[in-house]
UniProtKB/TrEMBL annotation:
GO terms for molecular function: UDP-glycosyltransferase activity. The keyword Glycosyltransferase applies. This is Glycosyltransferase. InterPro entries: UDP_glucos_trans.
Length: 471
């Protein structure tokens, strides 16, 4: 450890999609500002997944990583989200040990965590380390969190009973049903809402909030947050889009890049629901039949159906299976020349940057969304959980770079609708317009990250603040 450098500690919560943007932030910091060393503390609830180990192995020498001892959730088996939301809360004593050991050797200029790491801020405060939130989701969601305490005070009814959409300064109107967590979030007496409220109150107490977004992506809300419009929030630093760079995963085990090399330019729809998202068996089969009916080429990352493997979230190394066990009979044979189905972890950023890709059917997790922006790939949005419905709203209603298939009254999307939307994106007039707008957004993203860009300026502002923290 080089003690003449300013030392920064980052603590992502458990889950690969939380680790990725944190690490990219650290990589950008040390590559653009020589004077920094970063320690990444990684909480675990079992043996670290292979993908996390591969990310750590590829880190530059100015970033080191420490996997914390695993914590157990045997007492909370009925809550499949507990590992995601509570791993940091159960790792506080090992976080304290790591921080105390670092402080005995060096001065720590800043500590960064995300909303699921909020409970670590008590430890950090006791140790007198300046704390920051790294917000891996859109600024719109950040604004919702920051406004939650006020909103809570002003409401006399349950959020779900409100007839209108929510208007938060600078944001597009948000229907209550699109809030994170869907129904659970809307029960103000429920644990989920209370937890979000707790986060909303705590994140306003930090020295600053770094958000993985950029001005042209969410200009209204970012300007409002930077003006402190009604939220009384700490300074906000948009430093995105921070997307996976280099090869973080093992090589292309599925051979999908080789397959893409043999497809015509812009001809393939990439289909994936992120690191852990999946559909019911019935919906998975309907999607298969819709893709087949569209007659468009596709590359589909299939995960086990969620009605058979509810804890599939946050893909474990054991997730391999035979796709013909879950897809309609004969589908793989019939679509042999049309598509490729894979079940392993794939190098997503390399796929999205491949010339053969013309669109992405996605659950619109924020990392996947920003990756589409960086590589200019228009989308079909199929949000599943977390803040994904809000992300879909931004993409469809505000940026107009995505289409959204309509579900029937039971929330089921039928094959004819899937085929229609896929055809429209891949070869329709509307698809072309979406592609052009996504191209504009891609240029705006590149500008934000350029030498004189807004995100580069935000990062420099933070760096000079941290360099000047007195040792
Ligand atoms: N990802 C990947 N290969 C896969 C699945 C996912 O590289 O097979 C990466 C993807 O590029 C993105 C992240 O995992 O960076 C998923 O994050 P996102 O926010 O899109 O969704 P989440 O996994 O949180 O639902």
């Amino acid at each position: 450890m080089n003690q003449s450098k300013s030392h920064i500690v980052i603590l992502p919560s458990v889950g690969i999609s939380h680790l990725i943007p944190f690490v990219e932030f650290a990589k950008r910091l040390v590559s653009q500002h020589n004077n920094f060393h970063v320690t990444c503390i990684i909480p675990t609830n079992g043996p670290p997944p292979q993908i996390a180990k591969a990310i750590v192995e590829a880190l530059p020498t100015t970033i080191d990583a420490i996997f914390l001892p695993p914590v157990s959730f045997d007492d909370l088996v009925a809550n499949p989200l507990a590992p995601l939301t509570l791993t940091v809360s159960r790792s506080l004593s090992s976080i304290r040990n790591v921080l105390e050991s670092l402080l005995s050797k060096t001065h720590v200029a800043a500590f960064l965590t995300n909303f699921f790491g909020i409970d670590s801020l008590d430890v950090v405060k006791e140790l007198n380390i300046p704390s920051y939130i790294f917000f891996p989701s859109p600024a719109t969601v950040l604004s919702l969190f920051l406004h939650l305490p006020k909103l809570d005070e002003s409401l006399s009814s349950e959020i779900r009973y409100l007839p209108e959409t929510m208007k938060i300064p600078g944001c597009i109107p948000i229907p209550a049903e699109d809030f994170p967590g869907g129904g659970t979030f809307q029960d103000r007496k429920g644990d989920s809402f209370k937890r979000f409220l707790h986060i909303g109150k705590r994140i306003s107490s930090v020295e600053g909030i770094i958000v993985n977004s950029f001005t042209d992506m969410e200009s209204g809300v970012i300007i409002a947050l930077q003006d402190g419009a009604g939220a009384n929030n700490p300074p906000v630093y948009p430093t995105g889009p921070l997307v996976q760079t280099g090869s973080s995963s093992e090589e292309d085990r599925s051979g999908c890049l080789r397959w893409l090399d043999n497809q015509p330019l812009g001809s393939v729809l990439y289909v994936s629901f992120g690191s852990g998202g999946t559909l019911s068996r019935a919906q998975l089969c309907e999607l298969a039949l819709g893709l087949e009916m569209s007659e468009q080429k596709f590359l589909w990352v299939v995960r086990r159906p969620n009605d058979e493997s509810p804890s599939a979230a946050y893909l474990s190394d054991k997730s391999q299976f035979d796709p013909s066990d879950v897809l309609p009979s004969g589908f793989l044979e019939r679509t042999e020349g049309q598509g490729l189905v894979v079940t392993s972890w794939v190098p997503q950023t390399q796929i999205l940057s491949h010339g053969a890709i013309g669109g992405f059917l996605t659950h619109c997790g924020w990392n996947s969304t920003l990756e589409c922006v960086v590589f200019g790939v228009p989308q079909i949005v199929w949000p599943l959980f977390a803040e994904q419905k809000m992300n879909a709203l931004i993409l469809v209603e505000d940026k107009k770079v995505a289409l959204r298939p309509k579900a029937n009254e039971n929330g089921f999307v039928e094959r004819e609708e899937i085929a229609k939307v896929v055809k429209e994106l891949m070869e329709g007039e509307e698809g072309k317009r979406l592609g052009q707008r996504m191209g504009d957004l891609k240029e705006a993203a590149a500008r934000a990250l350029s030498k004189d860009g807004s995100s580069t300026a935000s990062l420099s502002e933070l760096a000079s603040k941290w360099e000047n923290v007195e040792a």
